[in-house]
C-alpha cells in the first residue's frame, strides 16, 4: 500500500512551494488509494512557533488536503536516540568527545580550523561514520542519480543538545512510518545520498524518491518574499478560492493534457501519475492564477460563495449576520459572479445594493444626472409598477417602449438610471440589476431622486 508524507517545519507559514509538495503527496495517495501522513518536523524548539503550526494545519484543511495520520517529531526524541545508540554499538557511529585529535587535525590550516570548530560544536554528539563509496538511486521524475560519498563528511545524528538532525530523524520516521514514496522539492536532492547511507547503516528498506522541480518567479530566479513566495493564508485573505489555488498548484509541474488549464480535482486524481511530473522548473504566473480564480468563481455555487462573502459584508457593516435577506444576497452573487476575479470584488461592486441611500460620485452626477429627469424616472416607475412578473425581459420591454414614446435614445436614460439606482457607471445589465433590486427598492431609490428634483 502506498504511504506518503508531507513534513513541514513550523518555523514559518505554509508557502506556495510547500503547498505544491503537499498537494502532489496527497494527490498521489488519493490516486493510489494510499495513505497521506502529515508529520510536523518541530525538533527546533527555539524556532518552532504555535502560530506557524496553526496556520499550516488550517491552510492544509482549507486547501482540502485531509491527512490520515499525524505525527510530531518533538514527541519522538527517545526513538531517535535509541537508534543512534544502536549504531554506536555496531561501531557505525561514535560519540564526538571520543574523536581522536588526529582525525580532526588534517589538511591545510583552513581545514584544521574547520575541523576543530566541527569537533567543538558537536561535542557529546553522536556521529555517523560515512563510508567512502558510490551510492545511487532512481528518481521517479529525473531518472538515475549517482553520488560519490567521499565528498560527504561524517554526519551528525544527535546534536550535543540531544536533538536529532534533520536527515537522521527523517530517515527513522520514514522507515518506521512505512513511507513507500518520498515526494519532495528538488532542493532536497543533496540530502538524498546522506539519507541513503543511513538507510543502509540502519538496515531499513529504501523508499522510492521523486523530486519535484523548482518553482521560479515569473521575472526569473527562485521564489522569495519579494518574488511571490506568499503564504497560503495571504492567498486566502486576498480572495482566492481553495479549488482555484489547488488547480493552479497542480499545473506547477504537471498537466492533464490537451492544453487544459481547468481541471476538477476528482478528475485529476484519476489522471495523476507522479512519473509524468515535469523535470523543468515551473513558473509562478499570478496572472494565470487570477484567471483560474475568476473561472472558478464563475462556476461556483452561489450558496458556497455566500459563506465567504457574508463575513466581508459584516466587516463593512453592510449586513447584520443574524438578520439579512439571504435570497437577495444569493441573487446579487449570481448577478456579479461573471465579473469577479476575487471574492472581495463583490464588496467593491455590490456595496451599493446594501445601503439605504446610494452615494454618487460628483463627477458621475455631473455627467449623467446633470438635468431634471424626474419626468422620465416617474414614467419608468409607472410602467414597471404594473408588471406582474418583475423579470429582466419584461422590464426591458417597458423601458424600450418608454424611450420610443419619449423619442430619445436608450443611452439617454439607461446611464442615468444605472447611476441613480446603484451609484455606479458600469456593472451587470441594467434590467438584470433592476430585477434583483426588486420593485420596492427600485421605487424607493428613484422616488428619492425624483423628490430631490421636484
Task: Explain how this protein is built.
- With 454 residues, this protein is mainly alpha-helical.
- It folds into four domains: 1-72 and 213-299, HUPs (Rossmann fold, 3-Layer(aba) Sandwich), CATH 3.40.50; 78-139 and 146-151, no CATH class; 302-354; 362-453, Arc Repressor Mutant, subunit A (Orthogonal Bundle), CATH 1.10.10.350.
- Helices cover 48% and strands 11% of the residues.
- The chain contains 19 helices and twelve strands.
- Strands 1-2-3 form a three-stranded parallel beta sheet. It has a three-stranded antiparallel beta sheet with strand order 4-5-8.
- Helix 12 packs across helix 13 (326-336).
- The longest helix has 24 residues, at 430-453.
- The radius of gyration is 32 Å and the shape is elongated.
- The N and C termini lie far apart (79 Å).
- Residues 99-121 have low confidence and may be disordered.
Which features would summarize this protein structure in a list?
Rossmann fold; 19 helices; elongated; 3-stranded parallel sheet; mainly alpha
Total of DSSP H or I helical runs spanning 4+ residues = 19
**Number of structurally distinct domains:** 4
Distance between the termini: 79 Å
On the 0-100 scale, what is the average pLDDT?
91
Main sheet, how many strands, which sense, barrel?
3 strands, parallel
Strand content: 5-15%
CATH architectural category of the largest domain? 3-Layer(aba) Sandwich
**CATH homologous superfamily designation of the largest domain:** HUPs
Low-confidence stretches: 99-121
Strand order of the largest sheet: 1-2-3
Amino acid at each position: 500500500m502506498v504511504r506518503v508524507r508531507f513534513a513541514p517545519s513550523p518555523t514559518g507559514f505554509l508557502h506556495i512551494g510547500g503547498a505544491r509538495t503537499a498537494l502532489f503527496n496527497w494527490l498521489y495517495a488519493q490516486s493510489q488509494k494510499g495513505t497521506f501522513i502529515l508529520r510536523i518536523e518541530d525538533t527546533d524548539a527555539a524556532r518552532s512557533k504555535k502560530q506557524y503550526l496553526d496556520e499550516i494545519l488550517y491552510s492544509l484543511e482549507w486547501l482540502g488536503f485531509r491527512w490520515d495520520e499525524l505525527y510530531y517529531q518533538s514527541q519522538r526524541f527517545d526513538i531517535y536516540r535509541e537508534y543512534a545508540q544502536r549504531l554506536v554499538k555496531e561501531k557505525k557511529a561514535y560519540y564526538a568527545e571520543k574523536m581522536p585529535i588526529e582525525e580532526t587535525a588534517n589538511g591545510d590550516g583552513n581545514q584544521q580550523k574547520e575541523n576543530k570548530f566541527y569537533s567543538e560544536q558537536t561535542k557529546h554528539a553522536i556521529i555517523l561514520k560515512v563510508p567512502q563509496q558510490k551510492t545511487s538511486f532512481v528518481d521517479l521524475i529525473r531518472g538515475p542519480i549517482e553520488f560519490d560519498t567521499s565528498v560527504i563528511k561524517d554526519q551528525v545524528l544527535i546534536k550535543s543538545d540531544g536533538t536529532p538532525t534533520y536527515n537522521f530523524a527523517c530517515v527513522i520516521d520514514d522507515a518506521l512510518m512505512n513511507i513507500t514514496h518520498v515526494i519532495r522539492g528538488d532542493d532536497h536532492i543533496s540530502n538524498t545520498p546522506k539519507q541513503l547511507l543511513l538507510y543502509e547503516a540502519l538496515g531499513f528498506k529504501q523508499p522510492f524518491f521523486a523530486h519535484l522541480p523548482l518553482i521560479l518567479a515569473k521575472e526569473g530566479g527562485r521564489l522569495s518574499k519579494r518574488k511571490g513566495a506568499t503564504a497560503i493564508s495571504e492567498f486566502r485573505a486576498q480572495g482566492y478560492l481553495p479549488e482555484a489555488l489547488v488547480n493552479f498548484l497542480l499545473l506547477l509541474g504537471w498537466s492533464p493534457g490537451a492544453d487544459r488549464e481547468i481541471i476538477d480535482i476528482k478528475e485529476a486524481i484519476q489522471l495523476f501519475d507522479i512519473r509524468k511530473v515535469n523535470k523543468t522548473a515551473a513558473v509562478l504566473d499570478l496572472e494565470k492564477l487570477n484567471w483560474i480564480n475568476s473561472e472558478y468563481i464563475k462556476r461556483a455555487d452561489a450558496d458556497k460563495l455566500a459563506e465567504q462573502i457574508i463575513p466581508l459584508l459584516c466587516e463593512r457593516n453592510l449586513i447584520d449576520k443574524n438578520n439579512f435577506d439571504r435570497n437577495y444576497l444569493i441573487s446579487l452573487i449570481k448577478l456579479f459572479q461573471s465579473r469577479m476575479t476575487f471574492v472581495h470584488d463583490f464588496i467593491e461592486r455590490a456595496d451599493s445594493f446594501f445601503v439605504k441611500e446610494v452615494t454618487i460620485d460628483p463627477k458621475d452626477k455631473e455627467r449623467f444626472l446633470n438635468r431634471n429627469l424626474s419626468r422620465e424616472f416617474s414614467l419608468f416607475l409607472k410602467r414597471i409598477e404594473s408588471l406582474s412578473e418583475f423579470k429582466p425581459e419584461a422590464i426591458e420591454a417597458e423601458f424600450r417602449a418608454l424611450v420610443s414614446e419619449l423619442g430619445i435614445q436608450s443611452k439617454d436614460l439607461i446611464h442615468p438610471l444605472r447611476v441613480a439606482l446603484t451609484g455606479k457607471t458600469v456593472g451587470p445589465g441594467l434590467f438584470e440589476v433592476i430585477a434583483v433590486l426588486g420593485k420596492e427598492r427600485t421605487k424607493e431609490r428613484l422616488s428619492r431622486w425624483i423628490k430631490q428634483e421636484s
